[in-house]
Amino acid sequence: MLKPFHRKRKLEAGCDEAGRGCFAGPVSAAAVVLPKNFYHPELNDSKQVTPEQREILRIYIEQKALYYAVAMVDHEEIDTINILRASFKAMHLALEQLPVEPALVLVDGNRFTTWRSVQHHCIIKGDGIYASIAAASILAKTYRDKYMRQLHEEFPHYNWAQNKGYGTREHRRAIEEHGLCKYHRKSFNILAAQIEIEFDAEEQVA
Questions:
Q1: What is the pLDDT of residues 26-44, one digit of tens each?
Q2: What is the pTM of this model?
Q3: How far does Cα 195 stand from its chain's mean position?
Q4: 51-64 helix and 131-154 helix, angle to the nearest 10 degrees
Q5: Among the four given CATH numbers 3.40.50.300, 3.30.450.40, 3.40.1060.10, 3.30.420.10, the one describing domain 12-146
Q6: Alpha carbon of 175 to those of 17, 98, 166, 172, 193: distances in Å?
């Protein structure tokens, strides 16, 4: 069971990102402030629930959250400032969109850059520990997946509707056949370094 909060008397925002390891498209991030009594039995890290469950959870989170926001940093900026900084920027942008300033930010992972002067707490695998981070992971993932399905209409041969830009075997083969398009992250040196790597990214896509 996920913990409902880290500090009971503080207004907390959970933050998480999606798409950090993708070959194409933006990195997205969400910031979510939940009521202290928030509960859903299926809420978990977005990678641990099915796409159908994620959509149900997205609607529930949007209905029950006190506040939430989602932001994206596109592939061009990722290439300019690097993916780590882009991930932090996406979280900062999401936090900026909240109508109130939280007193504490809970961040999934082990690194973060301070937003404004607000205290933050990094939690490794926090999306499987705290409800607000799990909720942020659901929103970041579902919003980005929807965006990648839209990009799929422009470049269907990469099948982003299915792989969401991750480096699956199918995606790598499509890159070998068609080359890179304008939405690929050129700084990832995909053609030079990653096409030949034999790994299975399908588990990240689900």
A1: 999 999 999 999 999 999 9
A2: 0.93
A3: 23
A4: 120
A5: 3.30.420.10
A6: 25, 38, 12, 5, 13
